[in-house]
Amino acid sequence: xANDISEAFGIPTKFLKPVSATKFLGLVKEQWLLWLVxxxxxxxxxxxxxxxxxxxxxxxxxxxxxxxPWVRIFIKIKEQSYNLQMLMKPPDFYTVPHTxxxxxxxxxxxxxxxxxxTVYSRYGEGKLPTMPHLQGLQNMxxxxxxxxxxxxxxxxxxxxxxxSIIPVYAVKKSGDCVIVIEKYISHTIHSILAYSPAIxxxxxxxxxxxxxxxxxxxxxxxxxxxRIGDLSIHNVLxxxxxxxxxSAVLTKVxxxxxxxxxxxxxTNMETVTNSRIDMTLLEKIENMEPLQFQHYYNQxxxxxxxxxxxxxxxxxxKISNFKYLLILNHLAxxxxxxxxxxxxxxWVMDFSGSDTGLRDLTVSKFxxxxxxxxxxxxxxxxxxxxxxxxVPDVLSDITYYVYKARQTPKSTLxxxxxxKWVPNEYPHSMQRMQEWTPDECIPEFFTEVSIFTSIHExxxxxxxxxxxxxxxxxxxxxxxxxxxxxxxxxLHHWIxxxxxFKLSGSAAVQSKNVNLRLVDNHTTxxxxxxxxxxxxxxxHRIPPATSMKPTAPRLPKNMFVHHSxxxxxxxxxxxxxxxxxxxxxxxxxxTLPKMYDPLADLNQLEASYVFSSRTFKQMPKxxxxxxxxILDPVxxxxxxxxxxxxxxxxxxxxxxxxxxxxxxxxxxxxxxYLCQVYRENPNEIPRCIASLLxxxxxxxxxxxxxxxxxxxxxxxxxxxxxSSRGLPPPTPAQILHPFxxxxxxxxxxxxxxxxxxxxxxxxxxxxxxxxxxxxxxxxDKLIKVISREKVTILQHFLEENQxxxxxEGIELVLPYxxxxxxxxxxxxxxxxxxxxxxxxxxxxxxxxxxxxxYLVRIFNVEQSTPKHMKIYHRLFLVQLLxxxxxxxxxxxxxxxxxxxxxxxxxxxxxxxxVDSVFTNIPGSQKDSTTELPPLKEECVSDEESQSYEDxxxxxxxxxxxxxxxxxxxxxxxPQAEAGSIDDEEDIAxxxxxxxxxxxxxxxxxxxxxxxxxxEEAVSDLExxxxxxxxxxxxxxxxxxxxxxxxxxxxxxxxxxxEFARTMSExxxxxxxxxxxxxxxxxxxxxxxxxxxxxxxxxxRNLIRMLTLCYLGDEQLITITDSEKRxxxxxxxxxxxxxxxxxxxxxxxxxxxxxxxxVLLQYIPSTVDMVALAKKRLTQKGxxxxxxxxxxxxxxxxxxxxxxxxxxLQETIIKEVLGPTIKLVSSPSHHFPGGSSIRTVxxxxxxxxxxxxxxxxxxxxxxxxxxxxxxEFFASFNQVYGQQLIKSESSKSLTDYKQGRGNRGGSSDDxxxxxxxxxxxxxxxxxxxxxxxxxxxxxxWTLRKSHSLAFNMTDDKExxxxxxxxxxxxxxxxxxxxxxxxxxMASYIPFLxxxxxxxxxxxxxxxxxxxxxxxxxxxxxxxxxxDSASEPTSPIGKTQTTSPIEEYIPPQSSQHSLQFxxxxxxxxxxxxxxxTDMIRFGPIxxxxxxxxxxxxxxxxxxxxxxxxxxxxxxxxxYWEHELGLSERDSLFNFKQIRxxxxxxxxxxxxxxxxxxxxxxxISASKDKTVKLWSIKSFGDGNGKCKCxxxxxxxxxxxxxxxxxxxVQLVASCDSTVHxxxxxxxxxxxxxxxxGSNQPITAMTALPSPSTMVITATNxxxxxxxxxxxxxxxxxxxxxxxxxxLIRSLTCSPDNSWIAIGFSSGLMSLLDQxxxxxxxxxxxxxxxxxxxxxxxxTTFVSTSFDNTMKIWNSEDLKDACILKGHTExxxxxxxxxxxxxxxxxxxxxxxxxxxxxxASFTSTKLRSDTFKGVLTSLAVLPQNRTLLLGADNGSIKLxx
Length: 1838
Description:
By secondary structure, this protein is α+β, with helices and mostly antiparallel strands. It has a seven-stranded mixed β-sheet. It has a five-stranded antiparallel β-sheet with strand order 1-2-3-5-4. The chain has a four-stranded antiparallel β-sheet with strand order 18-19-20-22, with no helix packed on it.
């Protein structure tokens, strides 16, 4: 067959692997497959650069990943058959109307027709009338009228629209057969049930959806006039997403004739399993010779149905151990040569001797190798991700390759074992191999001699034991040990461990044999693993003596002890109590053979019978002949299909009872077995399929199934005309009908199936495009467009069925959502459109577990596109905050936002815009836009109406900080009209209201705001305190919101191309990039998070990011700023461009929270960066120096005058500027970046000093900064030598640098620097003698006072060569830095802030600096083409006519200075009496000299958020939290009052803090519920008013819950009110009249549940669904009178409910079933509160002054938390700590939840908290407490 396939398609035979006689698995390259699809044959010249071992590995069935360009295909050989094309029932046979009236009418017509046909056939002529649709077919034989298979040619790639039919790549006739190549699907339903059963066990929806798909496929086959064949778990294919596939090629379609022939050959079968007779089976097994077992093993035809006979044969020693174990491996699905699923045999000895060292077969090899202690450790639960188990696998792929290392190529070993080839790592001998491996042995060590011979030169042969002569001898003797009596005696124990009952249940735990493959919840579909064949203990093998003599042995001679030999009696010690007087032989002793057991055979027979009956349920069968019934062939075929479907459904749900069935079982066999299972235990049938089995299989009243010859039809039995439900015989359409409840299909299944079908259609379109001959760029673009349409399909499904599919339904959708998140071309769109919808159904914990890696990967994409701007926009960040939770968001996305603000995630516009020809895409012009998820906040005012009262510190209307958990006010609400909600309310109520088709789409990238709009927006933000980057529609092109834009010629242009075209027309500053969006989002987030979280997660990361902006040589490249977008600087480098937005964010945060942020966080950070560079000058350290100076330069405008003076000397100068100057001028410190980094540092230093000077004014600048400037300019002396005071003649600087002599006496030796009287600009004018500088190399000396070398390092003598070489390098480095350019760039700005006179008086080397400036000016003049037009005095001319001109500031009192100050004690008090400073013009010939207006050194908007500036208690709290380490997890309560919330008039009964920690809800005795916003303002004494108030209650409210999933509040005052917390609109009020009893307690089920549990006064639990606002079901909580329920809680995993009663009793219920697990006396007094901590722990408090910790798995011994001496009426959890409160106003903190927990208690001070403490809530991320009092006030304390 393989040769026929190779000849037909040109596929080499080595790339084909036989699966069965007519099926092959093939391996081809994508290019070959393209040839197969187009031309029907592979190319002649094939590139087969792959080894045979690699081919074998890729063709292994357990292999799940095939590397490109290889593709696996499936090849089938099918006999040609005639397909009937005209045979078809009327349309109503396949489709049923979906209305109730139409359904009833259809049923009535079908029943009437069937009843008539039955009566007519019985009492009429005995022949059915000819149907209209069957006219012309009367002469056809019955064989021709049977429905056949599908026409394969209709399912070639691209020609089929049925997604469940496997596409066919090629079809070719070969003789009488047809060879078909299909797409390879690796899994079947059997592989799921055998290797991944947890997928089906843990969900009802998944198996039901499999059955739903099967019914749809059956309907498709029947409409195509074809049978689907006998469905079984072995022939129904399924992919990893649980999508059903059925092949169009049915190699075995049962027909009546074939069944009749089969029946004739099986007339002698008597058992239910129809197993072959013993002799036939023996012949097959005996053919399996040991030395040829590999060949025979793969061809072995033994099936699971033969297992009963096989067990009996082995027990009775009719087959060997070796053969039996191989057969068990075969039946368990293990495949020879498959590394993951190779057959295993036991290690039987340790090879220490030929007959010694036998292995203990009662324990696993893994246990022997690892020891019990190691197994106990792995069986413990370390974390939620760890699965308790003992054994990971029986045989791993690594061990397999190590076993066969001598015969495996190195490339394969390096791939699977160890990437680096190390021969010594492989065991050198058999004894070492047995000691090393924890896995079982393989058959090759018992059969093959070649496995010991190495094919590698550097790996020796496997060393054999010393008692063997050769490999052949070892194999023979090894087999002998396996077959020995000692091994046979215990081999059944090894079978129990490997294939039997010790793989599951308590037996597995007791034998330490819990296998990971069986308990890992099977989250992945596999086709290999551990299979349990037996559920009962395997019978042992009969000993040889017993098996030889099944009857009792004969009595030997002299068995009786003769009475005449009394001496024997005296010497006998066997029976000391025997009488000495022997009266007859009847009293004598009988001596039997040793170890004889007369009941052994009977026990063995009974054990075998019990084992067989329990395991195989094998019972004799009697056959009663039955009259053959003639049936319509089409109806007969449909009925058989329905019966096979029902059997398959039963086998899926009863997998444990049907696990040993195999593919050879006929439908009759399967049905008979199911009848037996039902007869023995009807309760085992799941309720969900009970109705199906009752109506389709009649298991409740089974009819005997005769052979095919007797019954005369394909179906197992004939259905009655009308069923017990009044229905006609079943059809697929009937079962799928929503009014026929045979299978409880959920209501969303039709929409889900349609959605997945649409997704599959898109996949088919993509496959067609891949096989088309078009260029790669065009192909990729088409695939991207179609892929993104899949997002729209899923979005529509999730929106339309929101809240309907539940947890199990969402699991069916998740694989398709994950696929879109994984693909690069759909990830962004999927995140934007689907994340919120899917997160709402999953809840925060599951959403984070599943989608967090995908989201982080989307943010961390290597090459960004404009589409990525959307995920940085705050509208998407809001979704992340709500669906992931605050903690997950800030820890995972804050740093990503900061990175984006630095420009490292920006898209490159040049890479996007490609002038290419766009291709027509059919159907792509339709609007496939995925619109912005519906947010109510889109129609809400963007203004912030935040009012603060200065006289009375009460904050009103702080709506802007409300949590994303709340919806924004609707458009027509009065609050919205008043603009009460600002942009921070972009939340999160993703509305399920009706969608408007022409709503705005944020997907339109071309609709991003243009720069003009952005400038206006920024100006508005400054006034309104509302900062966010807005997306707006382009008025001129409203259709840009679609994903694709139609070009002029009908071509499709992608959205990215359109955006690139638009952006390419704009200037660089007008282009909107990711950093712009990220920056605006950070600004919004800084207001949203509050001061503490902003400082921890935003400010810190921004400062760290600032260092990275200057890391690397490319960041130091000098650039120009023609558009003046960046801050003015002495030298603008590329790093400044990246740091611009980072600095903008830092500035915004400091303006928001005040200058204390600068003083306590920013400036200390700069000091730390400088100190780090001093300690170790690395590449990061030098980048930190630049970032410290840049940050300092940008911080100075944010400081007030007094703060600047306070920090100037001690911090800025001594700890930042001074150390930086010493570092940059030190000749002993080597900078990794060389002279370039030093130069940039010097220029940034000039910026800082210059800005400080402008802020201080002349007088203070001279007083404070003279030393800094002197030290800076002294660095030039190290390069050019110190100025000699008495030197008269010396070489000029030019001569020194260029090696030329001096023209003595020339006027060129002098340069003039003066102020031009007309332009007020500096120009060269003052004569300075260049010859006065002694610059000779020999006389150059270095002043110690200007060097850091002696201060920073030890004064040591350096080694001559290396030190001299480094010293010369450092000298040259300094010369490159302190050059004329730096002199000019620093001297002129300093001249402006100090004045000329002061510089001449206090700068020792001023002449040198002036000379350097003159030289630089000359060089610029020579190179600049515009130098002639500049007003300058040439240096070459003698300046004698004009004296020195300089600006001298007026010498007046200090009050007349621009910066006035007065001394108070030792502090300089700054007086803000500013006057305009002299404005100096730009420097002559150099436009790069730093020039700033003094107004630019002050921040105009730093006081716009003055009310939010940190001061008082807020500052103390912020400073304390900022100084805490992340490891400091202990809750430290300091009683610092931060905020008061006034509004309630009576006692606070309940507080609920929302997950976002910026808002909370309170309930009071005053019959109101209020919504509050938390925002820092004032000094801690401020009072805040509420946002919303709900006033519909009529009694005191004692409980409130908020459900994130529906964003509704349920509040209780004995009646439950459900209302919207944002609009205060009531949804429903459930009064306590009629059936609604008064409520005493209430709690919410964990997210994403929509349920609230309420406790009635009759101790019943009622489940309230907030989505429907109706009660669902109720549970009873106690069997005795336990009193009223005071408190209840649910575990985080929704598994149990703990209840506390007023009597002190407690109950534990199973939340899923309602079963009462336990009721016990928990406390002596009334239970006050019960709260769940984790899935096994909960805590309770009572009036008996105790607080107890309970374990839900062991309720006997409770742990008592000691500490409080009075009742703790409320408590909460912070991490693993318990925070509790008492009515004595004491706050207690237990450090952990165990008896060893330490306890601290704090008494609330009266000045901090007034009244009696009544309620408590914690904000964990901010480490603050909300405390409610009996007087109605609420305090926020830390």
